[in-house]
Amino acid sequence: MRVAEMNWMQIEAQAGLDDRCILPLGCVEQHAYLSLATDAILAEKVAHDAATPLNLPVFPVLAYGMTPGFAAYPGTVSLRMSTYIAVMEDMLEGFYRSGFRRIVLVNGHGGNAPVMTFCTEWMGSRPDASVKLHNWWAGPRFQAAVKAVDPAASHASWMENFPWTRLEGVAMPDTAKPPFNAALYQAANPAKKREILGDGNFLGRYERSDNEMLSLWQVGVEETRAAMTEDWP
């Protein structure tokens, strides 16, 4: 259930029935020929698709994240880590005040992952609360399914090219992006990173069939649903 389609009284009742809630985490950053909001779109959709059969509330996606490495690409917006942690603390406290004690962060952007260190610190002051960070695209089942289709897959490649991340009227190159020098890239400033990456695809083809992508999506949804239901302390 989408929190955007609920009122406060419904949230109060829901928290009394089930203390789990979901927050998708995204980012606004370059994704080659795909939407700048790809990470936010995917995180919110996979969270909603996974949570719907469980009747768990999904809060609106936190669309902006930490992506300083792509700062040289127009349209990329990166929050400082101090800003992101401050926002996350306020959000966790809001969930807690609402009665939620088990919180799942469905993350769509690798650069956001360091926030789990803060979440662990926060749980130290809220010992009856539990927070999970689920990097949905990095789950072992999803990654195994991706590699079974094509192991050459990464940021802004076919692996993120779903019907809901494509842009109308934007054609994909009919080629495969070769690997880049990862060590050089890691040591580079944002302008140099753009020079190394070019269009922004990290590796591999730009597009695969919808049948393949929808099958992969279902794996991601099921793995995300498992993160919402299993292994709570």
TrEMBL record:
A molecular function (GO) term: metal ion binding
UniProt keyword terms in alphabetical order: Hydrolase, Metal-binding, Zinc
A GO BP entry: riboflavin biosynthetic process
InterPro entries recorded: Creatininase-like_sf (IPR024087), Creatininase/forma_Hydrolase (IPR003785)
Family matches, as Gene3D superfamilies: Creatininase
Top-rank taxon, per record: Bacteria
SUPFAM superfamilies linked to this entry: Creatininase
Cofactor: Zn(2+)
Family: Belongs to the creatininase superfamily.
Annotated protein name in UniProt: Creatinine amidohydrolase
